[in-house]
Amino acid sequence: MASLLIEIQTEELPPKALDNLSKAFAKELAFSLKEQDLALPNAQVTAYGSPRRIAALISDVSEVAPDKPFRQKLVPVKVGLDAEGKATPALSKKMKALGIECEPSELKVVNDGKQDQLVYEGTKAGVSLKDGLQIALDHAVRRLPIPKVMSYQLENGKTVEFVRPVKHLVALFDKEIVPVELFGLKAGRETMGHRFHVHEPISIKEAEKYAEQMEKEGKIVASFEERKNKMVGALKYAAEKLHAEIIMPDDLVNEVTALTEWPVVYESGFDEEFLTVPVECLILTMQQNQKYFALKDQNKKLMNRFLLVSQIEAKDGGEAIRSGNARVVRARLADAKFFYDQDRFQTLESRVPGLAHVVYHNKLGTQLERSERVQKIASRIAEQIGADPALARRAAKLAKADLRTLMVGEFPELQGIMGEYYAHHDKEDDKVALAIREHYQPRYAGDELPSTPESLAVALADKIETLTGLFGIGQLPTGEKDPFALRRHALGILRLLIEKELPLSLDNLIAIGTEEESVVPGVKDATEELKQFFHDRLRVMQKDQGFTAHEVESVIGSEPAILADVPKRLKAVHDFMSLPEAESLAAANKRIENILKKNTLPLADAVDPALLTEKEEKDLYEAIRTLEPKLEADYKAGRYEDELRSLAPLKAPVDAFFDKVMVNAEDEALRRNRLTLLNELHKAMNQVAKLSCLAS
Questions:
Q1: Which CATH class for the 349-544 domain?
Q2: Which architecture does CATH list for 566-694?
C-alpha cells in the first residue's frame, strides 16, 4: 500500500468557501475510495486548501482492490430450467444481462422460503486504482459544496461547470502518475507555485512529499490550518512588538487565510484625525473593505496603526506595501468620516418620518408603522418589569431611525450602534441612547443581553412584535429556512426572560404582542402556534444545558408562568431523580394521571374524611394533609428542591393505597371521594414539575 495525492489547481477560489471546499473534497474522495475497497477503513485523510488549489493526501491506498465473493439471485428454478435441465431463454437472457457465463449445472439452488431459486456464486474482480480513482474523483467533484457554479469553455469548445476554471490536475500514487482525467485535463505531476515568487511549474516527485515540496519550491503553505496558525502567530508577534492588542475575529482570520498562499505580516497606519470617528466604523471599514487587523493600545483604545497580511516578501522590507495600504485606507476612512459628519447634521427624531419609505413587510407595512406598534408594546412591557415607560417608548421610537443614515446605509452591521452615537449627539437621555444600541441584543448565541430595564423592554418589544406579526400572517420557519431569523428572536426572548429573571410571563408577553399586532389587517391570532414554537426552542435550550429530555419535558409540561423559574425547577427535578423513591413516585404519578384522564365522574371540591373506609386511604389522606403546608410554603418561596425532596415520604402510603384500595369502587360516593383524593395528591406532587414525564 502507498499514499495517493490528488490536487486540482485552479484560478482563485472564493475565500469564504475555500476551507469547506477543501475538506469536503478530501472527505468525499476518501469515502469513495474506501467504498470501493481501494483505501483501508482507517486510512488517514489530509485536506489541503490554498487560494488556487484544493488537494487531498490519502494513506493506505491499494493499486487494486481485493476480489470479492458475491451471490446473485437469478430466476426461479421452474422458470430458468426446462424439463431436461437446460437453460430457458429467460435464464439465458438474465445471465447475459449480468455478464455471467457458466453452465446451468454450475448454478446453486436455494430456497428463499417460498420457492427454489437459481443462484450464481462467484468472485468479483477488484477494481483497479485507475478506474476507481476516476469514479472517486467524479463523485467528489459532484458533491462539492460550491456556493456559485462557474461555467467556462475548454480548448475543445466544450462548456463545463466548476467553482473556478481548472488549470492543472495532479494524481500521484506514491511516485507514479495515475492516468485519470478531469475537465479535459489529463493528470500529471506538474502544478503551479506562488503567483508572484515562482514562475515555473513545479513537478511533484512523491505524494507524501507534496506539502514539503510546495513550501520549499512553490512558496505555498498548502495546509489551510497550518497557514492560518503561521499567520496568526506572525500577527500576534507583530502586535506584541507594538505593545498592542490585536482584534482578530474568526471570520476575518479565516478569510485572510484563504486569500494568501504565503502569509507575510506588515504594519501600517492612518492619520490620527480619523480617531474622532466612532471606533466601530473604523474597525468595520478596515475589516470589511481592506481585510486589515485593527489594534488597541494598553488602555483598550483604538490605535491609528493596523496590521495587514500580504503574500509578498518585499525586497524593500515592505515600505511600498505599507505606504500603498496607508493611502488606500485613508480614502476609505475619509468616506466613513464624511458619512459620520453628514449624518450629525440631522437628528434621529427628524429621520423617523422617513421610515414610512422603508418597507418592513408587504403584509405588515412600513418600518414607521412597525415602529408605532413597537412603541406601544415597549411601554406596556416597561410597566411590568420596572422600567420607565416613557423612556422605553422614546427609545422604541428612535430605535430604527439610524436605518436612514449614510453610515448604516454603507455598513448595515452598525444598526443600533450608530443610533446610540447619534442619540448622544442629539442630547437624548442616556438610557434612551443605550436602549437604541442594546435592543438588537442578543444578536447571536452567547451575545450579551441588554443591561437596563428600558433596554430590556425595547428588546422584548422589538422581538415579540416580529414574532406575533410574522406568525400572524403565516410566515413560519420551515425546515432549515428561516429568512426572518424567527428562531433567533425566540431564543433571544427566552434568554431575556430567564437570565434577567423578569417578572413577565411568556403568555402575557405573547398576549401583549398579539393585541397590538391585531390592528394590522390580515394578521391572525397565532398564540397557540407561537407558544409551541417557544416551548420547542426552550426544550432545545435546556437540553443543551445538559438536562435529559424527560427532565426538560417534566418542567415545560407544567407550564411555569415565569420562565426564570425553569432552570431552578430543572435543577430540582435533576436532584429529585437521584432519590431512591423518585422512580416509584414518578410511576405512581403517571398511573394517577391515567386514572384521572379516564374518569368521567365530577369530582368533589375536597375529600370527605367520613367516606374514607380503608386504612390505606386514611393513611394517604393524612400524609397529604401533613405535607401540604410545607409543600405550599416551599413552592411560594421558590424552594423547589426542598419541595420535591419532601415528596419522598409519600412513597409508602401511595404504594399501599394502590396495593389495597379499589379506586373504581361500585359505590359512586366512595369512587368520587377516592378520585378526589388522587386529584389532591396529583396537585400536591406536580407543582414544580409534571412528574409523570419522568416515568420510564
A1: mainly alpha
A2: Orthogonal Bundle (1.10)
Q: Point out which residues pair with 296 in neighbouring strands.
A: 245, 302
pLDDT given for residue 122 in this prediction: 84
How many Å apart are CA 14 and CA 29, to the nearest integer? 21
Taking phi over 0 as left and psi of -120 to 50 as alpha, with beta for the rest, 122 belongs to beta
**pLDDT beneath 70: ranges in the chain:** none
* Separation between Cα atoms, residue 386 and residue 76, nearest integer Å: 82
Per-residue model confidence (pLDDT) at position 144: 95
Q: Which residues of 123-133 are buried (b: 16+ CB within 10 A; e: fewer)?
A: eeebbbbeebb
- What is the C-alpha to C-alpha distance for residues 545 and 551, in angstroms, rounded to an integer? 12
293-327 burial: b if 16+ Cβ within 10 Å, else e: bbbbeeeeebbebbbbbbbbeeeeebeebbeebee
CA distance 267 to 307: 5
> CA 533, CA 556: separation in Å to the nearest integer?
13
Nearest to 309 by CA among 228, 231, 243: 231
The residue to which cell 478569510 is assigned: 255
- DSSP strand E in 229-300: where? 245-246, 264-269, 293-296
Residue 398: its H or E element: helix 389-398
- C-alpha 293/C-alpha 285 separation (Å) is 11
Domains 349-544 and 566-694 share a fold: no
Of the candidates 402, 439, 404, the one whose C-alpha atom is nearest the C-alpha of residue 421 is 402
Instruction: Count the neighbouring beta carbons within 10 Å of the beta carbon of residue 115.
Output: 10
- Beta carbons within 8 Å of 356's beta carbon, 6+ residues apart: 366, 367, 368, 369
* CA 694 from centre of chain: 29
DSSP reduced 3-state for 415:
coil
Which uninterrupted H or E stretch holds 324? helix 319-343
The closest of 268, 313, 272 to 286, measured between CA atoms, is 268
Q: For residue 562, how many other CB atoms are within 10 A of its CB?
A: 16
pLDDT at 439: 97
CB atoms within 10 A of CB 526: 23
* pLDDT for residue 642: 94
**Domain residue spans in the chain?**
2-64+128-218, 68-124, 225-343, 349-544, 566-694
Contact 449, 495 (CB under 8 A): yes
Cα dihedral 92, 98, 104, 106, rounded to 10, equals: 170
Q: Given the C-alpha cell 416597561, which residue does it identify? A: 382
Q: How far apart are CA 422 and CA 137, in angstroms?
A: 56
pLDDT at 100: 85
Task: Supply the pLDDT for residue 236.
Answer: 97
The pLDDT assigned to 316 comes to 85
- Distance (Å, rounded) from C-alpha 221 to C-alpha 53? 11
d(CA 540, CA 552): 9
Question: Any idea which residue has 437446460 for its cell?
Answer: 86
Query: All 3 cell numbers of residue 545?
Result: 444545558
Q: Is 6 helix (H, G, I), strand (E, B) or coil?
A: strand
pLDDT at 125: 83
Q: What's 561's DSSP letter? A: S
Entry pTM: 0.80
Could you give the count of Cα atoms lying within 13 Å of 163 in the half-sphere of its Cβ?
27
Residue 348 is placed in which grid cell? Answer: 434621529
- How far is residue 105's CA from residue 87's CA, in Å, rounded to a whole number? 9
Specify the pLDDT at position 336.
Answer: 94
CB 204 within 8 A of CB 220: no
- Three-class SS of residue 548? coil
Q: Round the CA-based radius of gyration of the chain to a whole number and report it.
A: 36
